[in-house]
């Protein structure tokens, strides 16, 4: 993982090539890499979807997920992190720790993932390894453990000095970096410098690892400490996330990648060293769907990381959403190439064709009995009694802390097919893309009659449009991109509605009475309809058939998708139904329409308020720019949460600011801080607006400003 363009795809491509998995070296610039296989990725030179590849290296199997760097695709990164055991964070050696590096770093923190850092692009003239180490310390509060130093000849990177073996590793420029050799360090001054750095490294490790400390005491010097003790200390401290080993190179110039692969084996955990939370499954299969893709020939493909047990071709498993699923075929991961295998097991990744209803984020388990057994073991471990009624799978996911939160959309726009005849095809395409990417929201707006897409940013929505064009051959039209405001009520509002009509000679009539309440707690979702349980209300409500009530709910929930101010989703409120009388022979859709009209009518007369999407920002800046940055943030209606020192020269500002005010923020921050500050952003829910901000937002959205 990394900031955009740091070199993840280029590095992955080298790993595949050096491991012998591919016999051609692809380049991002030529649009022929293995992992950027979507047409949009190849055209734009960016990664949009995580891609899975696996290859063998020195008698080990490495499963690698190449993740996107752009903030609009954070959800992809999040899903991948739930499926891996360790991560390699790639830095651009000339840029150091950048905005999105900070975001992915905190995502990896949340998943408690051990990590390595690879400082890439060290061939660039402006690359500075030491400055990157300082950045890692100061911007990420981490303990970097440099294992290498760059070797440059006439300004060109030719190799690295490996501190642990105190040797120079030089790459042969001839065969795309396939061969390299270790050469002793002849220069005495350089030799001394390397020794000094090695002792610093051992000293740092000895403070973290008792075995190493003991060996140093016994040897009474750093000099005679055995290399395997140092390697063990690095591994143990990395697994405990006390340190981060740092390597360097230039993937593009084919320097350093093999040593990075060695370090993955040496220092990142094996599957058996993590995922103990799945022990409750014993040897039964449990895995996680970290991605769903649609292949034209093979249909939906679920990419699954197995944590325990094995899945065989032709076997079944169960999921949270789809009940039992059959695995018809299994493929090995190599991006969009499919190689069939018979089974895959714990630690590995398999691409399964057959499952129809799995969605990204699903936990999949061998069968219901295995799930029950696991729950029992978990309950026994925590001495708790579980409620029978709760969905087993959800309960398990919550116990294992595995629920995925799908971020709220922050932007939306309408999408229309070029002709009404293509509406169904467009709906199908959107449904398929949404299964792959749960952060894409799709809804139908009853009032405008349009399909509305919600997403994480402009790029996100543009990519969806171009995928619909290239993969489904539909040239859809997008409306203007707008901020996804939500709406809420300021006080309860009650209303009654009578609808009567004669349709095809049959009289339809409905009467209803309801109140919409704001949720005082600020929690709960808009999708809530409750029945008044007073005796008086129950008089009429008990006569309503469940099917009719279902149609009523559907109408009510649909109407709550569209607030009266800007058509934003109604949030934090509950509908309470006091009375519902339905005339004999009234059709169900008539009840649904009446419910929507009643809610629409109540909302038009209610006091509503806009809620705007906020972003959480973490800004790391040298102290001298702090006051200018704070002044600028104030102009953006930002709420400063914390300002704290990081290292001796930097400050970290944590702040929540409205998305509407952040359009140009990264550029302005660069200008204010002469390019030295960095910012990471992530969505941070919605918050109420005051009257004047709301009026401005409405004028802007309605195009009056
Ligand atoms: N000079 C130099 N350029 C590099 C190096 N590695 C990658 N690049 C170039 O940097 C650009 C981005 O590389 P990618 O591999 O696509 O980076 P990425 O991190 O996968 O990008 P996203 O997935 O889109 O975030 C491409 O033009 C690469 O050719 C390197 O070591 N040195």
From TrEMBL:
Record: residues binding GTP: 2-9, 66-70, 120-123
Compartments it resides in: Mitochondrion
Principal subcellular localization: mitochondrion
Residue intervals of the Tr-type G domain: 1-272
Keywords tagged on the record: GTP-binding, Mitochondrion, Nucleotide-binding, Protein biosynthesis, Transit peptide
CDD domains: EFG_III, EFG_mtEFG_C, mtEFG2_like_IV
MF GO annotations: GTP binding; GTPase activity
Gene3D superfamilies from the UniProt entry: 3.30.230.10, 3.30.70.240, Elongation Factor G (Translational Gtpase), domain 3 (3.30.70.870), P-loop containing nucleotide triphosphate hydrolases (3.40.50.300), Translation factors (2.40.30.10)
Family note: Belongs to the TRAFAC class translation factor GTPase superfamily. Classic translation factor GTPase family. EF-G/EF-2 subfamily.
Biological-process GO terms, alphabetical: mitochondrial translation; ribosome disassembly
Pfam families named in the record: EF-G_D2, EFG_C, EFG_III, GTP_EFTU
PROSITE patterns for the chain: G_TR_1, G_TR_2
InterPro entries cross-referenced by the UniProt entry: EF-G-like_DII (IPR053905), EFG2 (IPR030851), EFG_II (IPR041095), EFG_III (IPR009022), EFG_III/V (IPR035647), EFG_V (IPR035649), EFG_V-like (IPR000640), G_TR_CS (IPR031157)
Annotated function: Mitochondrial GTPase that mediates the disassembly of ribosomes from messenger RNA at the termination of mitochondrial protein biosynthesis. Not involved in the GTP-dependent ribosomal translocation step during translation elongation.
Name of protein: Ribosome-releasing factor 2, mitochondrial
């Amino acid at each position: 993982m990394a900031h955009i363009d740091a070199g993840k795809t280029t590095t992955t491509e080298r790993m595949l090539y050096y491991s012998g998995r591919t016999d051609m070296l692809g380049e991002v610039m030529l649009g022929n890499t293995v992992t950027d296989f979507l047409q949009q990725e190849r055209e734009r030179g960016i990664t949009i979807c995580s891609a899975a590849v696996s290859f063998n290296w020195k008698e080990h199997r490495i499963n690698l997920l190449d993740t996107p760097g752009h903030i609009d695709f954070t959800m992809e990164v999040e899903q991948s992190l739930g499926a891996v055991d360790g991560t390699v964070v790639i830095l651009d050696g000339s840029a150091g720790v950048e905005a999105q590096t900070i975001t992915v770093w905190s995502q990896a923190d949340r998943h408690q993932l051990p990590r390595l850092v690879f400082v890439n692009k060290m061939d660039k003239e402006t690359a500075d390894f030491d400055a990157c180490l300082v950045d890692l310390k100061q911007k990420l509060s981490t303990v970097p453990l440099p294992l290498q130093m760059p070797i440059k000849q006439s300004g060109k990177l030719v190799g690295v000095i490996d501190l642990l073996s105190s040797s120079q590793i030089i790459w042969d420029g001839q065969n795309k970096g396939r061969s390299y050799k270790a050469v002793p360090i002849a220069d005495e001054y350089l030799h001394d410098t390397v020794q000094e750095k090695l002792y610093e490294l051992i000293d740092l490790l000895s403070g973290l690892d008792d075995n190493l400390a003991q060996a140093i005491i016994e040897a009474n010097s750093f000099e005679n400490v055995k290399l395997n003790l140092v390697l063990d200390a690095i591994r143990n401290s990395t697994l405990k996330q006390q340190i981060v080993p740092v390597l360097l190179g230039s993937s593009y110039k084919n320097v350093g990648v093999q040593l990075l692969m060695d370090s993955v084996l040496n220092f990142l955990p094996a599957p058996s060293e993590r995922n103990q939370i799945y022990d409750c499954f014993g040897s039964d299969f449990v895995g996680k769907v970290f991605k769903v893709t649609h292949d034209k020939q093979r249909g939906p493909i679920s990419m699954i990381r197995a944590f325990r047990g094995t899945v065989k071709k032709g076997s079944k498993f169960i999921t949270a959403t789809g009940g039992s699923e059959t695995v018809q075929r299994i493929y090995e991961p190599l991006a969009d190439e499919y190689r069939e295998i018979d089974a895959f097991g714990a630690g590995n990744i398999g691409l399964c064709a057959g499952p129809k209803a799995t969605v990204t984020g699903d936990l999949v388990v061998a069968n219901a009995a295995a799930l029950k057994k696991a729950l029992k073991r978990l309950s026994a471990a925590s001495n708790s009694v579980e409620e029978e009624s709760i969905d087993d799978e959800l309960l398990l996911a919550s116990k294992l802390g595995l629920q995925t939160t799908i971020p709220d959309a922050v932007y939306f726009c309408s999408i229309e097919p070029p002709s009404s005849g293509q509406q169904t095809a467009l709906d199908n395409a959107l449904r398929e893309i949404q299964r792959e990417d749960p952060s894409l929201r799709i809804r139908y707006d009853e009032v405008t009659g349009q399909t509305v897409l919600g997403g994480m940013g402009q790029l996100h929505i543009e990519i969806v449009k171009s995928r619909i064009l290239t993969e489904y051959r539909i040239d859809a039209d997008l409306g203007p991109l707008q901020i996804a405001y939500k709406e809420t009520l300021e006080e309860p509002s009650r209303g009654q509605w009578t609808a009567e009509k004669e349709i095809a000679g049959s009289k339809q009539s409905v009467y209803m009475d309801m109140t919409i309440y704001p949720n005082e707690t600020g929690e709960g979702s808009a999708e809530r309809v409750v029945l008044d349980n007073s005796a008086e209300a129950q008089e009429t409500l008990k006569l309503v058939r469940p099917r009719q009530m279902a149609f009523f709910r559907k109408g009510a929930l649909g109407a709550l998708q569209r607030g009266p101010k800007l058509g934003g989703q109604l949030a934090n409120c509950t509908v309470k139904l006091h009375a519902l009388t339905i005339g004999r022979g009234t059709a169900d859709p008539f009840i649904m329409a009446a419910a929507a009209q009643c809610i629409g009518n109540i909302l038009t007369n209610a006091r509503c308020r806009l809620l705007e999407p906020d972003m959480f920002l973490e800004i790391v800046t040298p102290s001298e720019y702090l006051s200018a940055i704070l002044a600028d943030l104030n102009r953006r209606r930002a709420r400063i949460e914390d300002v704290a020192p990081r290292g001796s020269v930097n400050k970290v500002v944590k702040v929540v600011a409205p998305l509407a005010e952040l359009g140009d923020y990264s550029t302005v921050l660069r200008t204010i801080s002469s390019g030295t500050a960095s910012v990471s952003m992530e969505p941070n829910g919605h918050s109420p607006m005051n009257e004047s901000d709301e009026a401005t937002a409405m004028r802007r959205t309605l195009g009056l400003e």
